[in-house]
Amino acid sequence: MHIVTLLGSPRRDGNTAHVLGWAEEAFRDAGHTVERITIIDHQIGPCVECLSCRKSSGRCAMHRDDANSVLERIGQADALVLASPVFCWGFPSHTKALLDRMYALVENYDINPEYTTRLANKPMGLILTCGGPEEGNAELVIRAFYAMVNFMKAVPRGHLLYPFFRRVEELTVVDRKRAIEFAARMTAAETSEVS
Q1: Which residues of 118-130 are buried (b: 16+ CB within 10 A; e: fewer)?
Q2: Most buried in the list 73, 91, 112, 160, measured by CB within 10 Å?
Q3: Distance between CA atoms of 172 and 189, rounded to whole angstroms?
């Protein structure tokens, strides 16, 4: 299985990257290939809802940035993992810009209630880190993620939350084990939710 991971943190080597690295290692140990896309390394402009992607075979015609090449890599994945910190009850702005532009992966939505997407039937999972609690904070991001999975007709494989996360040094063997278990559930035949 070819698994694309999206690192949504503005810090390439921060807390979120560290936890994602554990899951990626577990994927590789199980024989899967992993391609990490660090979103901050790419120029992704905001979606302006021009709907040009509806007329250009799923490519965004509005921006001359890296979005189309990143979306192509996402669309070729067998499974997708988004790893992100919580910023002001949501995804960081550069990550949100890419998620908005993922609308280009949807085909025939305007004309067909049985629309398709390039992520249909593919497993999607979320790794989330935050400095506060889940309630009234991370829960909003988690709900938004599952709404997107549903819209993309993907297969929800759960989320892994690290609340009250301040420093990598505070992580334990149990935290690493949770990341490994999440990776196993992402690639398992049945759908499971991790919290």
Answers
A1: bbeebbbbbbbbb
A2: 160
A3: 28
